[in-house]
Design goal:
By secondary structure, the chain is an alpha/beta fold. It contains eleven helices and 23 strands. The chain folds into two domains: 90 residues, Urease, subunit C, domain 1; 294 residues, Metal-dependent hydrolases (TIM Barrel, Alpha-Beta Barrel), CATH 3.20.20.140. Helix 3 links the parallel strand 12 and strand 13.
Amino acid sequence: MRFTLRGPRLVDATTDLAVGDITIDNTRIEAVGDPLHDAGEVIDATDAIIMPGFIDVHTHGGGGFNLHTTDVEEIHSYLRWTAGTGVTSCLVAVVGVPNAIPREQLRTVVQAIEQTKRRERAIGAEPLGIHLEGPYINVARRGAHPPSWLRIPNEAETEDVLATAGGYLRLITLAPELPGAPAMIRRLVEAGVTVSIGHTDVDYEQALEAIQLGATHMTHCFNAMRPLHHRYPGPLAAVSDSPRVYGELINDGIHVHPALVRILVRFLGPQRTIIITDAQACAGMRGGTFEFAGQRVHVIDGAARLDDGTLAGSVLTMDLALRNMLKFTSVSLSNAVRMQTLNPAESIKVADRKGRLQAGYDADLVIMDRDLNLQATICHGAVTFATDQWRERVALLLPA
């Protein structure tokens, strides 16, 4: 269907237009800015801010749904739920299993992605691929990952992982100091996978070596890694010194203190900071006990914790993460939006169609009110979430 959202403020990584139109033709953005003579169905959006849909490259679930699963319907349920937080596309995170690689979980994600591709109309966020967080991580920085999940990289297993992921492995978190990691990094980069330094005890020099091999991403900066030190700067300093590397931030104010959020944004700039949720199934919920790959996770004072108190991901949603960035720092709305749209798209190599309000790009939009409260989400031109007020406005766009 062809329609125009008339008169909103339009904000993306490079533009902040006080008033403009955005026209959608089926699944693509047709035009941005001046009104078209033939605008199709016109929807009043003069009280709204429209930005590209959020891209969460590091999430484990939400709304009661786990992404590390062997139930393909659980993934689809998550994708429908997360659209209600402004996410229009994401990576599906897979973690470890005891004493093996997680073949069944990887195959389940492949099945979910391929089923989504066959749909004529989006019903939720688009799964862009797989994020494999581990099992090739350092036991000393394992966080909520049990030791039985962890493995040492080797050539045959790298090929096994790539084959099982069916071409959908887009991001992998690994510790570059592990034996066999350099060869694994080279092979993954050759296969087009974004390699992320994370859950690591790597020092500054080793981190630079991994970056020279092709690592271009860092998993949840500050968390599960050697900290900054004035004589032993560690991996964060190596990333700061490397202009091609992006760094993730769990922007809930719990994993990283707001003062350190400000420091990280100064280190990397808005051009290299990527906001993530690292959310668990309990994201978006007020409390309770949930499961993370066979472990109990409790929601306590806005944090997700294991029985021993270890942080186990977050309960953060991307709409809240945006408001937090503006609360914690002095960045512009355009730069805050960049961290949740264009930067993740660039890091996982989908920026040719995701992350901008630009003609020819996927029609993935977040519609917010002037206080940055989510009002509607559009995925590939389909309304996948709307408040009651916005359901009335977009009634003609909803499925019959």
